[in-house]
Amino acid sequence: MKRKKHNPLCPLCACIQTRTLSTQAAVHMLEFLEAFTENLMAQYGREIHRHYAKRATRNINSHEPWKGDCTGELF
Predict the structure, then answer these.
(1) Calpha distance 27→57 (Å, rounded)
(2) What is the C-alpha separation between 70 and 5, in angstroms, rounded?
(3) Nearest Cα to Cα of residue 17 among 30, 8, 28, 6
């Protein structure tokens, strides 16, 4: 079976095509995202906060911030 070429204007990728959600669908999505975020922070919150605390202490070049310290961290 031949795979379809990715359409860059598909609804999930493009802001050009917008679809409206019902209020109920939007509420369900919001509740899911809130639960997901809460569980993620419960599981990985300390590591995430430690990562950003370390990152804040690094010497970052304000003119070229993308040329920062690459320590091999996942974040």
Answers:
(1) 39
(2) 34
(3) 8
Q: How buried is 51 (Cβ within 10 angstroms: 0-12 exposed, 13-18 middle, 19+ buried)?
A: middle
What does the pLDDT look like over 15-52, one tens digit per residue?
A: 666 678 899 999 999 999 999 999 999 999 999 999 88
Q: What is the pTM of this model?
A: 0.50
Q: Name the residue with tokens 């599981």.
A: 43
In degrees, to the nearest 5, what angle opens at C-alpha 61 toward C-alphas 53 and 75?
A: 40
- Our CA dihedral for 10, 13, 19, 25, rounded to 10 degrees, sits at 120
